[in-house]
Specification:
OB fold (Dihydrolipoamide Acetyltransferase, E2P); five-stranded mixed barrel; 21% strand; alpha/beta; Rossmann fold; binds iron/sulfur cluster
């Protein structure tokens, strides 16, 4: 039993606004679990809540600006309802503490990613008379063992298996805000998965900054196999694997565990070995391509998606062309693509920017255009196939039209009939590509 289990706040309502990555989404559900154990109920509107939490992200400047603007508007709410508690959690609580308190003095609570277990005692202590209650700094042992997230409202749920990161890529703020890598014990992961299945979840998404470097009493490959043996787990995904840890045994576990989906999101960032070295990515172009080859050898139709950064400091035109040629070789199914932007506090931010903003955007545009053509080709190649589609829910425009996903993470629109329920898996014939989605009919 953790410190939060007494029902001391029954009747109160909480609202959480979440920015950033899937890990933040997971952390918000973890915090919601802590609050619900205390008797809090979820509110869909900040205006109705007794406790408002903003879970923030520092990965990109834009995410920080958006969260600060949201905090401004919530602070306005608090002026109208002074009893409301306002907390900032996540990476900005860790990274932008001074700036937040100077700009929004109404903040009562600041908790970094390793301190959510202190939420209960912070609430018990009441509103601070001056300043904010804080829980900050890296806790090298924090894995939230014994803490479980609130029940999800979807048939697919995240399960964080790792916290922090040991890789220290030069452009990334995560190792500073989330600290070193820690693996959650396997028994806790298996227990959380069983609880999710009991609540109707059929698909789990394992989360970690370098998820495949996870190791506790068993290896990551063994964990995949163990999870695949849990009754009711129909699909297993994981994100984001680091190329360096994509071993033969992980590929084999993927190929031999029917519940593990044939989709890998494996960030490449650049196609140039020199740029990858400058980024301290710990692999080169040839190693990345060898892992793609290994994956396709074990899982021939595997879908591969990626992240790409355009215009890293010092990247030459030739090195940018190497990224385009790697994209041609791999033909990714889709990609998240960004122009490099310096994050204060990272080693790369000390590098002189050698590429003009116009050139950076032009390179990004070339990457986007090439990827769009590959994405369209890869989707069109699926037309005519029959795939197992997991129904997620009906589309907003037309409630007879449902959205589902193939094991390869391709979105499908279909009319499955009145018996359709979220979580059902149906065989679907893929009829046509419509933009970035497929249309299908029950086979
Ligand atoms: S692997 Fe690199 S980019 Fe990913 S979280 Fe760790 S340091 Fe950041």
């Amino acid at each position: 039993m953790n410190e939060t289990t007494s029902q001391t706040d029954s009747g109160k309502r909480y609202y959480i606004e979440t920015y950033g990555c899937q890990m933040n989404e997971y952390d918000s559900s973890l915090v919601a679990g802590i609050l619900e154990e205390r008797g809090y109920e979820k509110s869909d509107l900040a205006e109705d809540a007794d406790l408002i939490l903003v879970n923030t992200c520092s990965v990109r400047e834009k995410a920080e600006d958006t969260a600060l603007q949201k905090l401004d508007s919530i602070a306005h709410l608090k002026r109208k309802r002074p009893g409301t508690r306002l907390g900032v959690i996540g990476c900005m609580a860790e990274n932008r503490r001074e700036q937040i308190l100077a700009r929004i003095p109404q903040v009562d609570l600041l908790l970094g990613p390793d301190h959510y277990d202190k939420l209960g005692s912070a609430l018990d202590a009441g509103a601070p008379r001056r300043g904010a209650t804080t829980g900050l700094g890296v806790d090298r042992n924090q894995t939230y063992e014994g803490f479980f997230p609130a029940a999800p409202s979807t048939v697919s749920a995240f399960v964080a298996i790792q916290r922090g990161c040991d890789k220290k890529c030069t452009y990334c703020i995560v190792p500073f805000t989330r600290g070193p890598e820690r693996s959650r014990p396997s028994h806790d992961i298996l227990e959380e998965t069983r609880r999710l299945v009991d609540k109707g979840v059929v698909e789990i998404n394992l989360l970690g900054q370098t998820v495949n470097s996870w190791r506790s009493d068993i290896s990551f490959a063994q964990l995949l196999r163990e999870l695949g043996r849990i009754d009711g787990v129909r699909r297993i995904r994981f994100t984001s694997p680091h190329p360096r840890h994509f071993t033969e045994s992980v590929c084999l576990a993927m190929a031999e565990t029917p519940a593990v989906c044939p989709h890998v999101h494996m960030p490449v960032q650049s196609g140039s070995s020199r740029v990858l070295r400058a980024m301290r990515r710990q692999y080169g172009r040839d190693q990345y391509l060898a892992i793609v080859e290994r994956l396709r050898r074990h899982i021939p139709d595997v879908a591969i998606t990626t992240d790409i950064i355009a215009g890293y400091p010092g990247e030459t035109r030739e090195e940018h062309l190497e990224t385009l040629s790697l994209m041609e070789e791999v033909r990714f199914d889709s990609a998240f693509m960004f122009a490099y932007s310096a994050r204060p506090g990272t080693p790369a931010a000390l590098e002189p920017e050698t590429i003009s903003p116009q050139e950076k955007l032009a390179r990004l545009q070339e990457i986007i255009e090439l990827q769009q053509s590959h994405s369209a080709q890869r989707l069109s190649e699926q037309v005519g196939r029959i795939e197992e589609v997991l129904l997620e829910g009906s589309s907003r425009r037309d409630e007879r039209e449902w959205i589902g996903k193939t094991p390869h993470f391709r979105k499908v629109l279909l009319h499955p009939g009145p018996e359709a329920r979220p979580g059902t898996i149906l065989p679907v014939r893929l009829l046509a590509r419509r933009g970035t989605v497929l249309r299908g009919e029950v086979a």
